[in-house]
Design a protein that fits this description.
Layout (H helix, E strand, L loop, with lengths): L2 H9 L2 H22 L13 H21 L3 H5 L1 H18 L1 E3 L2 E6 L4 E2 L1 H18 L8 H18 L5 H8 L2 H6 L4 H20 L1 H18 L8 H25 L2 H11 L5 H10 L2 H13 L10 H4 L11 H33 L4 H25 L17 H25 L1
Antiparallel strand pairs: 1-2, 2-3
Helix pairs in contact: 1-19, 2-3, 2-17, 3-19, 5-6, 5-7, 6-7, 6-8, 6-18, 6-19, 7-8, 10-11, 10-12, 11-12, 15-17, 17-18, 18-19
Length: 429
């Protein structure tokens, strides 16, 4: 290895690397357990799912070598090109895409199914960091705010029709990068208000939303100081806009959402009042989550032991090696195992926050927060989904779930930032 290569390895944040290795290893152990059969016990059987994942791990290791070998400024220089390629690949799915489990999200390459939305996450994080770090960009200007948000929205809106709303949701997490760089907080307030009104309308209806909002507004006007002047017309327009949005919720829910999405919201928010109908939904659309919860509960404190999970062996949890891999950890390794995984992920995220904050280069810092946003949303939603706290969306657990595209591009996402961080240390010496 060259002198520069040795310098990169010396300055690499090995604490983050070790957590990455631990997560990949633990993930593979649980993939092996969830796909193990007595007829297929070999670790190196590459026709099996755990064998394929081992191959993907090797491919990801090779990608790490390539990422670290390239110059750090390569990623900033070509970030716009990566973004354009990702958009072209997403558009191509409408013509050449392969449909798996009802979603046209893959290209069939014969030996490998490529999911371009995973590459788009890396490319969008790079492109957003490039735009925000440009000397001509001022995030205080509304025009620049709109362009930054548009960079996020374009790939998200191309992914939604696949349909893959889970992956699309991840892109919206990148808005937190813009907030970190100075986007006014009222945008965040508007976003939370939209979500809150949407949920409250589904639960109680538009009439009650209008009444509650009117009462809160009246209470505010009664309790405010006489010297505080309230602009009546703008407040009235905001009230009308909220009520109109609430009226649109039922149309979106009934006419835009698919039945499976409506059922998931009905289950999560307990919208269905008929106990029999609710039980039917739980056994149908909520079956995966129900079985996942039972598998985790059965693990107790220390679990049933490696390869001893009865629900795992009985295939009670569908797709357990992918989105529901965390349930295998819960059944076979118990609370101690799930706590270990949660601690590893949390520690990695906190470490990445620390590394991002110490960056002197704006592009590196902004990209670092893009990495944090993407990993956090995947981690938070996946574990919330598997444990029944959040509705089923269908996104993998980073570095953990089975899948070549996911592992490869999550690895690239992380190690591009670690390369940028190593370069920062290089520039200081």
């Amino acid at each position: 290895m060259s002198v520069s290569g040795k310098s990169v390895l010396k300055r690499l944040d090995w604490f983050s690397v070790l957590i990455y290795i631990a997560l990949v290893f633990i993930g593979w152990i649980n993939i092996y357990s969830s796909t193990f059969t007595d007829d297929n016990p070999s670790i190196f059987n590459f026709s099996s799912l755990h064998g394929k994942q081992l191959f993907f791990i090797g491919t990801s290791a090779l990608s790490i070598i390539i990422i670290l070998a390239l110059e750090a400024n390569f990623y900033e220089r070509f970030s716009s090109l990566f973004y354009i390629i990702s958009i072209v690949l997403l558009l191509g799915l409408f013509i050449f895409g392969k449909t798996i489990a009802g979603a046209t999200s893959w290209y069939d390459l014969g030996f490998f199914n490529l999911q371009p939305s995973e590459f788009a996450k890396v490319a969008t994080a790079l492109a957003l960091a490039k735009y925000l770090s440009d000397i001509q960009t001022d995030i205080k200007r509304q025009k620049d705010q709109m362009i930054a948000i548009l960079i996020i929205l374009i790939p998200a809106f191309l992914i939604i029709p696949q349909p893959d709303p889970g992956s699309a949701l991840v892109f919206f997490a990148l808005i937190f990068v813009i907030f970190r760089e100075g986007l006014p907080l009222y945008y965040l307030g508007i976003g939370f208000m939209v979500i809150l009104i949407f949920i409250l309308t589904l639960m109680f209806g538009t009439i009650w939303v209008a009444i509650i909002l009117g009462l809160l507004l009246a209470l505010f006007l009664l309790l405010k100081k006489p010297s505080f002047k309230v602009p009546i017309i703008p407040v009235a327009l905001i009230y009308v806009a909220i009520v109109l949005f609430s009226l649109s919720v039922n149309f979106v829910f009934n006419s835009v959402f698919e039945q499976r999405h409506r059922d998931r919201f009905s289950l999560w928010l307990r919208l269905e009042k008929d106990p029999k109908k609710l039980e039917e939904i739980r056994k149908d659309i909520g079956y995966n989550t129900y079985q996942s919860e039972k598998a985790i509960e059965s693990g107790g404190l220390s679990g049933k032991g490696f390869l001893e999970g009865t629900r795992t062996k009985g295939d009670f949890v569908p797709e357990q090696h992918t989105d529901y891999i965390f349930s295998t950890v819960g059944e076979e390794w118990g609370f101690m195992g799930t706590a270990t995984v949660v601690i590893l992920f949390t520690t990695l995220l906190l470490r990445l926050v620390y590394l991002s904050e110490r960056q002197k280069n704006d592009f590196s810092r902004m990209y670092g927060y893009g990495v944090i946003s993407i990993l956090f949303v995947h981690y938070f939603i996946n574990i919330g989904m598997v444990t029944g706290v959040l509705p089923t969306i269908g996104i993998p657990l980073p570095f953990f779930s089975y899948g070549g595209s996911g592992l490869l591009f999550f690895t690239a996402l992380l190690f591009i930032f670690l390369k940028l961080d190593a370069n920062r240390l290089n520039e200081l010496t």
